[in-house]
Predict the 3D structure of the following.
Amino acid sequence: MIYLIFGPQSARNKVKMNRLAKESLGELDDLNFIKFDYNEELNAEIIDAIETPSLMASKRFIVISNATFLSKGNKNKFLDSLLASIKNAYDNDICFILEAEEIDKNNALYKYIEAYGKIFELLDINDDEWDAYIKAYFLKSLGANIDASARAELKRRVHGDLTLFQNEAQKLALYSKNITLKDVELLVTNPLEEKTGDLFYSLLNNNKAKAIRTFRDLRVQNEEPVRIISMLGNQFRLLNDVRFLSKIGMNDDEIAKELKINISRVRTMQRMKSKIARLKIEETLLELYDLDLKIKSGLIDRFYGFESFLIRFKAY
């Protein structure tokens, strides 16, 4: 896969790049994760890395930062050889990064990535501008209205990713022409909720290494441990509720209706309930409550405290 990330904030671009790399490879190391700076590297070295299959890793993720050959008004002969090499990239994933507000959309490489890869345009706008942008985009581009609470939640869920926002906006506009908060909650993936779910399943499957990696990914995304604690607690409470309602004779459809959740979540919890003792759920909820209180009281470092909880956790 070929990716292009561009936007004015290098930190935001880097977070997106790291997320794509981890989705592609899982574990990153010096053999499968290779980074080039176009301002510092020889063109031939970049081409060679793209075209050469790795002998030590089945797949590599190659990053070319400062991709100024994609800037407006930049005519670069390197593009011809670069385009040719991309077509011989074997199983390597390639990610171009350009720190800029604008890009040359008539550029041959841009058009190639647009056709065969994925482009992520990350905006640099404040909260007020985002709100106005979302409102105008729905009204002018999609002929739909979106209320204030829905705009706020949609902004939070797309994390400044313009491409993701546009994809989700089109999906919402197909669903309704008067979009509410409930519509956003129903149709747009909550990144924190999804990651917290991954963390929850990793704990119950006794995969502490994955749980810690997930938490560190959330830390890179500036998610606060107290929010993660709250959402993780919700996962354990839901598991407890499903276990209880199942025990008193309710089937999955009845449980979903009673708890007002999708039946797929009920079925997932049914699969997970054998992995942890009932008393351990109650003990874990008390431990999370105590940790939350200590963090808010300044008695423990929030990052150290939560990571220690993950390390200590045992389902039985």
About this structure: The longest strand covers residues 93-99.
